[in-house]
């Protein structure tokens, strides 16, 4: 009986760990009991915000100072940032025709405890906060609440503040188009097409042209559930995408995003620049960064994100510092962990703007972008918070045939990337399986020798605790169908997110290390190297204590992967930590074209002895 009891306790512990790892903690804004909020305004309480007008020099981000006071201070008092500034019941739709609207129906875009920078607040009743705001197409107000997050009582509301031009075009993000010589530019603004026409002004060496942009928008009815349709809803503004075509390879172009108003004048962003992609097969140095699960963080410490996605700002900082040595970025799923709180997508695009405005920022779909019950996702979880893919598909461009099916291929010089969508079925016989095989089979390895497979969930190998608890060492059913494709078409490296750590395998096929080398691979790999690079920023995931023969390197830390192709024969792989940007794992591949053609297990084409 004692053994049986121990067995059930062990199982419970495993399931508890599994749930903890899979949830990665709660979205901080979800901790606020929005519908329990009541008004308890006090005549002697106040919040004062300054400056009143932001962005006077055209900047889209600015720090504000709050001074506040309460006659009945408590350690769980907190400040919420609301945008639009009017968050009263008059803006709340009734939940049903027979009910009245709640006092508060929208979560703040961020919050912070009143004593965060004022440790004597509980005794003195006075405090101050410095908060960073970004331009989000509307005005702002700041509310002081008592009662903690679970029973919020509105004590005081500040004056309203706003950016000089709340509708300004902001946060441009580049992406590869469907052709190698095409770049797309996507940005956000407050301008509907009925009041202004979006465009990109661009060119090289001072010869500028204007290219029109398409505009997308959606409302809460486009989303699938709460909180995205309820307390997490915030108008996303208008998302514009322009296609810059027939680019000259390797040429530096400047660009500005803008809008032509009905009176004939134009609103333009600051000037940005990018370098056009190399011709497919071009033999030159090409540098690629790959990571997953970065999320966003708050420079002002708000939203308690330091306990949720503590590595995010460090990863962003390292990429910005090394940007001159990066040509293209792949963020392979779990983009910002908005989880249905729509305002957080603006925060994320602002955070990565220095990167995404300069090099293509390619994304893949993860569970926190897509999964929602009854919507066609392969997994029936609620991880997207009701977004069901709409935000990821709208906020970023990918060269997919159908953005609801988030799989696509893209070429960059000597690289071919095949990006899978793990939130849709990938198994043999499915539409996605056919795409994956075609992507792998259609590449000319003489011109593009470096074949890379990318996906969010681990379809290959991982020693993560929750996978080992399931007995799979992978996403269940992950590699069973795909490993014969990787082997047949000689995929060099497969990189995944989802598991928030770093791990690298040997060149492997069917659980067997084909090559015992660890750091310098000369000639044929004979298998695929699988890498987990999910330590972009979200809370870390533990490894199981079991040691497998195929796992070469494990690291419980935040970091990202960098691939450098020096030419068609030499590739450098590096794993860098986000805290310092230094290399903590690396290997090289050195080979010729004939090594790619060479037979390996299950990769030899049929032959004949006929003369």
Summarize the structure.
With 611 residues, this protein is an alpha+beta fold.
Describe the structure in your own words:
Helix content is 15%, strand content 31%. The protein contains ten helices and 33 strands. A hairpin with a 5-residue loop joins strand 32 (570-577) and strand 33. Residues 1-23 have low confidence and may be disordered.
Give the SSE layout:
Blueprint: H1 2-23, E1 38-39, E2 46-50, E3 53-54, E4 61-69, E5 78-82, E6 110-113, H2 121-124, E7 126-134, E8 141-146, E9 153-157, E10 162-163, E11 170-176, E12 183-189, E13 196-204, E14 207-216, E15 238-244, E16 252-261, E17 266-268, E18 272-275, E19 286-291, H3 312-321, E20 328-332, H4 343-356, E21 361-364, H5 367-370, H6 390-395, E22 408-412, E23 415-419, H7 431-441, E24 450-455, H8 465-470, H9 479-488, E25 493-496, E26 502-509, E27 512-513, E28 520-522, E29 528-533, E30 551-555, E31 559-567, E32 570-577, E33 583-590, H10 593-597
Parallel strand pairs: 1-9, 3-10, 19-20, 20-21, 23-24, 24-25, 25-29, 28-33
Antiparallel strand pairs: 2-4, 4-7, 5-6, 5-8, 8-9, 11-12, 12-15, 13-14, 13-16, 14-15, 16-17, 16-18, 19-31, 22-23, 26-27, 26-29, 26-30, 31-32, 32-33
Helix pairs in contact: 3-4, 7-9
Features:
disordered N terminus; eight-stranded mixed sheet; globular; eight-stranded antiparallel sheet
- In quaternary terms, these chains amount to single chain
Distance separating the two termini:
73 Å
The helix/strand class is alpha+beta
Strand content: 25-35%
**Tally of helical segments:** 10
- Spatial extent as radius of gyration: 26 Å
Mean pLDDT: 93
Number of strand segments: 33
Q: What's the helical proportion of residues?
A: 10-25%
Shape by Cα distribution: globular
pLDDT < 50 stretches: 1-23
Q: Main β-sheet: number of strands, strand sense, barrel status?
A: 8 strands, antiparallel
């Amino acid at each position: 009986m004692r053994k049986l009891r121990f067995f059930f306790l062990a199982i419970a512990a495993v399931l508890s760990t599994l749930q903890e790892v899979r949830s990665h903690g709660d979205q901080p804004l979800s901790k606020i009991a929005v519908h329990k909020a009541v008004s308890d305004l006090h005549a002697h309480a106040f919040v004062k915000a300054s400056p009143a007008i932001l962005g006077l020099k055209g900047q889209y981000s600015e720090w504000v100072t709050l001074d506040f006071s309460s006659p009945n201070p408590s350690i769980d008092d907190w400040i919420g940032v609301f945008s639009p500034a009017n968050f009263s019941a008059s803006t709340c739709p009734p939940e049903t025709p027979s009910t009245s609207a709640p006092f508060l129906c929208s979560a703040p875009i961020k919050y912070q405890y009143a004593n965060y920078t004022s440790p004597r607040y509980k005794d003195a009743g006075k405090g101050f906060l410095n908060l960073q705001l970004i331009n989000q197409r509307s005005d702002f107000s700041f509310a002081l609440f008592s009662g903690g997050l679970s029973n919020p009582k509105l004590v005081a509301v500040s004056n309203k503040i706003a950016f000089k031009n709340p509708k300004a075009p902001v946060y441009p993000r580049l992406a590869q188009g469907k052709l190698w010589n095409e770049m797309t530019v996507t940005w956000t603004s407050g301008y509907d097409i009925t009041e202004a026409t979006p465009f990109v002004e661009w060119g090289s060496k001072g010869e500028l042209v204007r290219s029109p942009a398409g505009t997308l928008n959606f409302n809460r009815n486009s989303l699938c559930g709460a909180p995205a349709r309820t307390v997490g809803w915030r108008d996303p503004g208008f998302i514009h995408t322009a296609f810059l075509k027939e680019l000259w390879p390797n040429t530096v172009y400047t660009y500005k995003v803008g809008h032509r108003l009905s009176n004939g004048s134009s609103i333009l962003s600051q000037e940005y620049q990018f370098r056009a992609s190399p011709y497919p097969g071009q033999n030159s140095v090409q540098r690629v960064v790959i990571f997953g699960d970065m999320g966003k963080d708050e420079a002002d410490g708000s939203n308690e994100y330091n306990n949720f996605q503590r590595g995010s700002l460090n990863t962003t900082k390292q990429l910005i510092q090394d940007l001159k040595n990066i040509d293209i970025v792949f963020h392979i799923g779990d983009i910002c962990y908005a989880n249905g709180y729509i305002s957080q997508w603006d925060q994320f695009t602002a955070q990565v703007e220095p990167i995404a405005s300069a090099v293509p920022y390619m994304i893949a779909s993860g569970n926190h972008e897509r999964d929602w019950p009854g919507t066609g996702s392969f997994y029936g979880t609620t991880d997207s918070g009701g977004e069901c893919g709409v935000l990821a598909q709208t906020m970023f461009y990918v060269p997919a045939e159908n953005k609801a099916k988030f799989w696509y291929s893209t070429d960059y010089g000597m690289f071919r990337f095949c990006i899978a969508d793990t939130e849709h079925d990938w198994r043999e016989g499915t539409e996605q399986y056919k795409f994956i095989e075609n992507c792998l089979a259609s590449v000319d390895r003489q011109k593009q020798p470096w074949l890379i497979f990318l996906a969010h969930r681990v379809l290959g190998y991982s020693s993560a605790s929750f996978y080992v608890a399931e007995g799979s060492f992978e996403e269940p059913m992950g590699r069973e169908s795909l490993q014969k494709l990787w082997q047949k078409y000689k995929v060099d490296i497969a990189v995944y997110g989802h598991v928030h750590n770093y791990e690298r395998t040997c060149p492997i096929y069917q659980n067997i290390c084909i090559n015992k080398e660890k750091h310098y691979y000369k000639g044929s790999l004979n298998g695929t190297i699988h890498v987990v690079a999910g330590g972009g920023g979200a809370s870390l995931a533990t490894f199981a204590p079991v040691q497998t023969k195929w796992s070469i390197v494990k690291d419980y830390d935040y970091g990202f992967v960098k691939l450098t192709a020096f030419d068609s024969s030499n590739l450098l792989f590096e794993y860098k930590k986000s805290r310092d940007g230094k290399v903590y794992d690396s290997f090289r591949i050195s080979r010729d074209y004939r090594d790619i053609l060479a037979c390996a297990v299950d990769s030899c084409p049929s032959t004949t002895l006929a003369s």
